[in-house]
Amino acid sequence: MPPTGTYRVQVRPEFPLKTTAELADYLADLGVSHLYTAPLLTATPGSEHGYDVVDHSQVSPALGGAEGLRELSAALTNAGLGLVVDIVPNHAGVAVPSANPTWWDVLRRGRESEFADFYDIDWSRGRLLIPTLADSPEALDDLRVEDGELRYFDKRFPIADGTGEGAPREVHDRQHYELVNWTRGDSELNYRRFFAIVDLAGLRVEDPKVFDATHAEILRWVDEGLVQGIRIDHPDGLRDPGAYFERLHRAAPGTWLVVEKILEPGEEMPDWPVAGTTGYDALAEVGGVFVDTGTEAFFDTLQHHLTGGDTSWQDLVHQTKLHAATTLLAAELARMARLAPEIEGAPRVLAELAACFPVYRSYLPFGSRHLAQARAEAGRRRPPLIPVLDQLTARLRNPDDELAARFQQFTGAVMAKGVEDTAFYRWTRFTARNEVGNDPADFGVAPDAFHDANDERRRRWPDAMTTLSTHDTKRSEDVRARLAVLSEVPGDWTEVVRRWVRTAPLSDPALGHLVWQAAVGAWPISRERLQAYALKAAKEAANVTSWTKPDEQFETALRAMVDRIYDDPALTSEVSGFAASITPPGWSNSLGQKLVQLTVPGIPDVYQGTELWDFSLVDPDNRRPVDFAARRELLARIDDGWVPPVDETGAAKLLVTSRALRLRRQRPELFGGYRPVFAEGRCGDHVLAFDRGGAVTIATRLPVGLSRHGGWGDTAVSLDGHSWTEVFTNTSYGGNRLPVAEILRTYPVALLVKEK
């Protein structure tokens, strides 16, 4: 059976398996059916996330090892819970070679290593390039030979048998690897990476031997009943995701499999043997339906006023993707181009096609239409390239062509680096919509489109995961819910933000607008957190400063801008006052989107801590410690009969979360269908409601507009005449026509259950 609800915990050395096991009773009380953990295999020493696995044969000792996993499994079993684990098939951690035995052997023995084909290395280019040296011609002078190893400051590398005599440079020149300037990684590297991260080397998991070696421990957990579900990280990096899922499905029959497949709006997923995606598509739909789509023009005008530019989202994305393809991913681009020596200008054309690709990748023959779209768009943008475009696309349509296989792996990385990690930080019109799996040009989602999407999920992927916050979201669900209020007060927002940018100007006005939205969206936020976010955002946007080319003068000015928010009493008061004005309607949006996410088709996931208000920004801000003791205490009070108000404690969200999750776990038969429920009356457009087959969700849309209309008035929903119990207030209702003002008297949301 699939889960009825999951709870994501960032298991890490500071919060190991033993500590996680102590949450079992709380999670059972909360109402989930499964704990969902970050990766558990041994990762790079000091790793805070676990996605840089170095040893696939054991549970990380830093997390508690095999004994820790057994303790966790026992605690979950005693609480009646299952376990879903996150796995990383695409890449392995190589930042500390001595920690990764397979990588160490490849460095020591080169092509003769039994693991030479374990990693996706282009051995035709000669020695394996390791970009680790300082940006200095004399960097190799700092090499030394110690204890049978070649060392560069604190970095250690193996020495091949019989090559250790002589000066350090001479020893280095005999190795199967070459240590090079760290800046050469993006352009000259000869092993595939995860995106542009040289410390994460691509695995050839398409090779059955590699699959077996990297999955044996995980499959043992499944065989022993320790694990009931698997979340697959970054499948788009794999050579053949479909074949991988088939192999994993056969190896772990009956296991709930969800994949981190990021679907663009309107994109369909191939018919793989999995339960569905990890829910970014649902996130975009749920968040978007709480946005006032009628105010888009106000934000277009504001963006133009603040930035002076008119670049469209589509043109910006093309620009940032082309830059990513030709700079950050230049090594991968060059490797592809070498497969087409007969085509003049292949690198330029491949980069253009990738920049025009409308989705993350295709899975030939599935998705070939996306290649056709890219070809048409590239031809429109670059007519002189049309003959070469036709030559290349003829090969890229062939799933048996090595060039086509690598191009499919390439486009996903281009999308991720160009859009998620760059364009999202430059296009700052309305950042509530700048989220993975969404097109920020889609200002919001109409209720009819929302209902259509959920009916489609019910029919095709009923056991897919749904989510609102993850470790990868750019801002937490409650920040986005509060920012959605801006769409209802565009005039107020325009007035204050124009005044603020004059008070604390920044030479990159788009970034300034991003920071102001982050400030009001997460307020009250500490100076240190906002400073860290602003600096990361600036480096990701890479308009003025970046990770590789920092601009100290700009970063100093950025810090001064953020400091002004806290050091100028008048400005502090204004920011605080404006944030306070949008906070109550933000609470309404938060409760609404949470209840909707928990009850739409799919399996809802709750990211750690978000059962209370959580105003986090991008990683690492969203990995901060969670106060579980406070959550236990509040849940106990609610269970004792306390009816929490909608206020700053967030206990109302805990009530909504726990009651919805418990109902899904206890009465899954109520959640098999999907039927929109429409309200009648003057404020009917402010109701979002649907019937899952005996459980009816009712949520408030656009609460500011509702208050301007003076409240619900005569608005009512028509049900089927049965008696209903509202879950959050334990109130009974009867009749065909239920007044919304009465149902939503206590909370802006309701969950009605048909009485037996």
TrEMBL record:
Database matches in Pfam families: Alpha-amylase
Top-rank taxon: Bacteria
Signal sequence coordinates: none
Domain Glycosyl hydrolase family 13 catalytic residues, every copy: 10-659
The protein's name: Malto-oligosyltrehalose synthase
